[in-house]
Amino acid sequence: MTSHVDVVVIGGGQAGLAAGYHLRRLGLDFVILDAQPMSGGAWRHAWDSLHLFSPAAYSSLPGRLMPPQAGEKYPDAQHVVEYLADYETRYELPIERPVLVEGVHRDGPLLRVQTDSGSWRARAVISATGTWWRPFIPAAAGRMAFRGDQLHTMEYRSHRDFAGKRVIVIGGGNSGAQIAADLAYDTELTWVTQREPRFLADDIDGRALFDAATARRRALDKGRSDTGGVASLGDIVAVPSVREARDAGLLKAQPMFKRLTATGVEWADGTTAEADAIVWCTGFRPALSHLAPLGLRGPGGHIPTVGTRSLVEPRLHLLGYGDWTGPASATLIGVGRPAREAGREIAALLAAVRTGN
Ligand code: FAD
């Protein structure tokens, strides 16, 4: 079965919904295809104790403020799932679920979006598939030798699964710090980071991160010197759980080890730590395999973009993957603006096609 629409949005997480909001306002004919059976994107898969690093009002998509969560300054992931579900209904976004996009192909003046349940032909495509679905674990000597459990952030649920065990958490970003804090009280924890952890000042949260990312983008756009953006502030937002564990002296990081052994890890000086489980909090990569048929990857494996638009394939926009697709676009509050710009560019493209220009 083949369907026709003006625009296909791939992914029904926050970025896909923000795109849908603007496409709806522009009066365009579109569909959102989402691989999951239910709303919420990656938030539905977060670990139990995950809380946003910004208050609700600063975690809102275009058009509708996120309501505060009772008793929580920083809402939890379930609250975000409920907000996104409500958002879809409120704006009557046309979402098809579960539909997995397998490939996007050129098809004359159109793009063909091939899925596991039919194909869609469209004049433009917005890819908004996030990063959660492509966990990254770096190469490490001895990884196959370790006989305990190894899991990535995306598989971690709760400290209860590890009570009384020896756990090594690897990673000095927000996920690593929050999961280490979660495990700090009832496991024998070793936290390993590539460099000394850099905590942001306690009064800095996602609001300041958004401002820093925006200021950097503006400076670069105007040809001024790089302000350093978010990275200049630090790596770890001191959310309450992290602050508590840090202040209790439970978040002392070790440097990166030399190799994994059958029973744990070994540092360059020969000291070792035994472990029952290792949690790799080592990040994610953009989930872009469905775009492979378009052959857009430039040197370094990145798809070059101007704003959200692919440099080589102007009918394709990439949304929500990180600063390279709009400042702070991989956050709830930051994705609205690039979504609006993508919508406007697509509306202009469609108008040009219709008038033959
Ligand atoms: P996702 O939520 O991953 O949604 C993508 C959707 O696309 C999914 O439903 C997926 O099933 C679907 N999909 C993927 N591939 C396909 C395909 N081939 N075909 C069809 N559908 C597909 N941001 C904040 O603003 N505040 C925070 O506090 C915050 N904390 C974070 C904590 C962690 C641990 C992480 C990892 C991120 C955090 N973020 C935070 C960043 C960001 O807001 C989230 O990662 C968010 O989920 C990204 O939304 P998204 O829509 O881009 O992707």
What's the short version?
Helix content is about 20%, strand content about 20%. It is an alpha/beta fold and about 350 residues long. Flavin-adenine dinucleotide (FAD) binds near residues 290, 330 and 332.
Description of the structure:
- It contains 6 helices and 19 strands.
- 41% of the residues are buried.
- It folds into 2 domains: 2-133 and 284-355, FAD/NAD(P)-binding domain (3-Layer(bba) Sandwich); 143-199 and 235-280, FAD/NAD(P)-binding domain, CATH 3.50.50.60.
- By secondary structure, the chain is of the alpha/beta class.
- Helix 1 (14-25) crosses helix 6 (336-355) and helix 3 crosses helix 5 (240-247).
- The strands form 5 sheets. Strands 4-3-2-8-19 form a 5-stranded parallel sheet, with helices on one face.
- The model has no long low-confidence stretch (mean pLDDT 93).
- The chain is globular and about 70 Å long.
- It has helices spanning 14-25, 77-90, 174-183, 206-221, 240-247, 336-355, and strands spanning 2-4, 7-10, 30-33, 95-96, 101-107, 110-115, 118-122, 124-127, 149-152, 166-170, 188-192, 253-254, 259-260, 264-266, 272-274, 277-280, 305-306, 309-310, 316-318.
- Bound molecules: flavin-adenine dinucleotide (FAD).
- Flavin-adenine dinucleotide binds at residues 10-16, 33-36, 41-43, 52-54, 59, 100-101, 128-130, 132-133, 175, 206, 287, 290, 320, 330-332.
